[in-house]
């Protein structure tokens, strides 16, 4: 496995692949890899000649400095996992390499960055969009892989690719869960043992809400149920619960087409912020 840490080295590597007409799959990560990340790499390995993974804790997508400071960094473990899964190359740049001291580029995603994750993490999607644009320009993949767990991010990346005319296919991969249903996330490593047991409340609440909607209960009733659930029955502090049209993230007021509806949720368990989502069907 090639370990590349600078842009000239990456460009040289990509030029060789293009000369050999190799198809490239790309999986961007911030490290602290888990089976969710590995599933993205497995999927890429099935669909491309080579897979490149990036590991870069991107400072511009953190609106909370302590969140950036505490984000888990496990590069030795990560590299061992990538080697084991037969990832062909990993790009591990420093912040100085990816950002000039006074960078001035600013991306605006309009409505998408004013709701849900965008609303509660101001500036987050600007940072995500900027770093993904940089990585796409450098790596020029044929396909790039993102998990449905970060549904709003996935939608934003698809918008980015469409509007900036990137010749890249975005492949969405289903959320990978622990045996008890908790969506895999690097942030799960920050939970205490006691918190970890309570973290499944997020997924459990989504399943109950889904069942109620499928049984014909109204959106208003289900939203009230979720608010009450986290007020009375859970240690998780609810940040938001939204029922949205998956295609455009507009709020759903009445259920008509179940195939285009998703339930999205976020909350804090102690100091750890958790998110999840499920489709209505």
Question: Your description of this structure?
Answer:
It is a single chain. By secondary structure, the protein is α/β, with parallel strands linked by helices. A hairpin with a 2-residue loop joins strand 8 and strand 9 (272-279). The strands form 2 sheets. It has a 6-stranded parallel sheet with strand order 1-4-3-2-5-6, sandwiched between helices. Strands 7-8-9 form a 3-stranded antiparallel sheet. The protein folds into 2 domains: 2-173, HUPs (Rossmann fold); 186-279, Pantoate--beta-alanine Ligase, Chain: A,domain 2 (2-Layer Sandwich). It has 11 helices and 9 strands.
Short description:
This protein is of the alpha/beta class and 281 residues long.
Mind sketching the topology for me?
Layout: E1 2-4, H1 7-19, E2 24-29, H2 35-47, E3 50-55, H3 65-70, H4 75-84, E4 89-91, H5 95-98, H6 116-120, H7 124-139, E5 143-147, H8 151-163, E6 169-173, H9 193-198, H10 201-214, H11 219-232, E7 237-245, E8 261-269, E9 272-279
Parallel strand pairs: 1-4, 2-3, 2-5, 3-4, 5-6
Antiparallel strand pairs: 7-8, 8-9
Helix pairs in contact: 7-8, 10-11
